[in-house]
Amino acid sequence: MFERGGECGCATSVEGDALRVDASECDDDGDLTTAPGCRATVVDACRDRAVESVAVRARGFERRYGDGACALFATAGAFAARVAGRDDPLASTARRDPLAAARQARARSPPVSAWAAESGLLVAADGLGTYDAMIVREGPVVAPARVRLDAPEEWSVVDERSLSTGATATRYRDGRGRPRYHLRPPWATLDRSGREAFRRAYERLAAGNVGASERAPRRAAAAVVDGDPNDVVVDALRRQTTGHGVLEDAFADSAVTDVYAPSADEGPALHVGLRDADSVPTNARVTVDGASAFASGVRAESGRAFSRASPTVDAATSIGGTPVRVAGVREPVAEGVGFAFRRGDADAFTLPELVANGTLPSDAAALLSLAARRAAASLVAGARGAGKTTLLGALCFEFAPTTRAVFVEDTPELPVDALRADDRDVQGLRTSERGDGLTAAAALRTALRLGEGALVVGEVRGEEARVLYEAMRVGASSDAVLGTIHGDGAREIRERVVEDLGVSASSFAVTDCVVTCRRVAVDGRAQRRVARIEEVVGDGASASFEPLFALDDAGDLESTGRIEEGASELVASLATATESYDDVCDGLADREKVLARRARGGAHDPGVWTTTRRST
């Protein structure tokens, strides 16, 4: 139950070790940075209680104060109680201006100076320094996250950009030179009247007074103002009620590849993966309620269980129109609820586009193109985020136009829709290991009964490996067999497939080539690259691996010369009954020219590329 304060309109309530402040009737909106009366109310509430967090709500928004501010108010309350009756003016100063009280108490003789030290006020004041240094994260009450709007003064700006959502993304270097990433959401521009309009509009929306259509946020905002509603208020209502809040801002930045929300009792602190950095702290923290809301949203959108009984989930969703793969964990396997959101490709990539952006050179692309078209069995390997799925999807456009393809995936990421739009015959199968669908092994067996054609496996990681390799060994699939797998290089992949996944050495030897993708440093920035193309030579346990393309000292993918020397078993296997090895090499040279020309000319669209090539 809230208790009204004596010096301002704020009311306080303590729940456990959390202090809640209702500033709806306060002229200063409960601003503890600038309002002495509001500070006095909070310090009074901390006099006889151990308070570890402070949250202030006003006009539909909430401000959460960091540990330094909480420590200052709690110790000021203890100190004010101790000196009351002995030094009432200092006790009053401690309530309204704890930092000034700390300076005064330090200069006093014992016992006042000793009480200031014993209460912890001096340490708390030294740790904070100024009220402007207080860490304050804020956001709409209904939002799943709170953000710190202002960066410390000692940080330097590296880059700043405006996003399509209306947010601003700023990259900093902190005082120790470490990278930091800040998002300033559009609602940060709302003044006091704008925030009040947001509060009133949200109350109408929550009460169901404006219906439940997509236009409900605009109708709610229009109902509380004269004239046209504020577009920022409308956008905030939509994104905080039916959208994904700050996650939409993050994925509106093309430099962001991942958003991480590691589980924590007090709610996850967001980090972002950037194209040139794996994990950078942000100014946003997800609330505990926000993490639960994310969990409910993932469960509803994916149709997959995500509970204590099923504490992990891997699913696909869309955030602000961007396809995203989300992996989640929760109790009992983690402390709280945590997520990793990984950007998908909104548009299907083709080999010419990958050549154009430097993922691989045109001669290596020509080899992979012909291998896919002529029924080679290939694995695309690499770590998470190395570009495996992007390359695999591009290779699917290299199948002959009349090839039927069956895709087996746990989480849909391959360009099924784009291939169908190009008039391809594609059947997708979705797998689940949780008892609510086909297992990967069962899906593969089903795929082999769905007709001859190419077989594409989103990720080889379990029992399905034995089924896949048995199909490859006996020739059950008459066209290409492609898949991705975690690992780095053919030897590591062979060890994983044979030793960990239980595939016999003789079965693994039917693999024609292993393509390894990596994130490599290019001009100081991390870029996705094909790092190695290796062919599998020999049978059984004696099988060896020969590189056809490898990175040189400059970091460029170059031919090792094995193909040109006439020694490649892969190239020899791609020859038809009427072709020689040299004929295949000539075909590769022609294909390389086409790929290079289309890469330079910008002919990247799947339909343009495949349709044009059919006549060549």
Name of the CATH superfamily of the largest domain? P-loop containing nucleotide triphosphate hydrolases
Percent of residues in helices: 25-40%
Main pleated-sheet profile: 13 strands, mixed
The 3D shape can be described as elongated
CATH class categorisation of the largest domain: Alpha Beta
Please give the number of β-strands.
25
Quote the average pLDDT: 88
The share of residues in extended strands comes to 25-35%
**Order of strands across the main sheet:** 1-2-3-4-5-6-7-13-12-11-16-15-14
CATH topology of the largest domain: Rossmann fold
* Domain module tally: 3
CATH architecture of the largest domain: 3-Layer(aba) Sandwich
- Weakly predicted, low-confidence segments: 607-616
Q: What class would the helix/strand composition place it in?
A: alpha+beta
The number of helical runs is 22
Distance between the termini: 77 Å
Rg: 30 Å
Topology:
Elements: E1 3-4, E2 11-15, E3 18-22, H1 36-45, E4 53-58, E5 61-65, H2 67-83, H3 88-96, H4 98-107, H5 112-119, H6 121-128, E6 136-140, E7 145-148, E8 156-162, E9 168-173, E10 179-184, H7 192-207, H8 216-223, H9 231-241, H10 246-252, E11 256-261, E12 269-274, E13 277-286, H11 288-302, E14 312-319, E15 322-329, E16 338-343, H12 351-356, H13 362-373, E17 377-382, H14 388-396, E18 404-409, H15 416-421, E19 425-430, H16 440-449, E20 454-457, H17 464-474, E21 481-486, H18 490-500, H19 505-508, E22 513-522, E23 525-537, E24 544-551, E25 557-559, H20 569-573, H21 581-601, H22 606-614
Parallel strand pairs: 3-4, 17-21, 17-22, 18-19, 18-20, 20-21
Antiparallel strand pairs: 1-2, 2-3, 4-5, 5-6, 6-7, 7-13, 8-9, 9-10, 11-12, 11-16, 12-13, 14-15, 15-16, 22-23, 23-24, 24-25
Helix pairs in contact: 1-2, 1-3, 2-3, 2-5, 2-6, 3-4, 4-5, 7-8, 7-9, 8-9, 13-21, 16-17
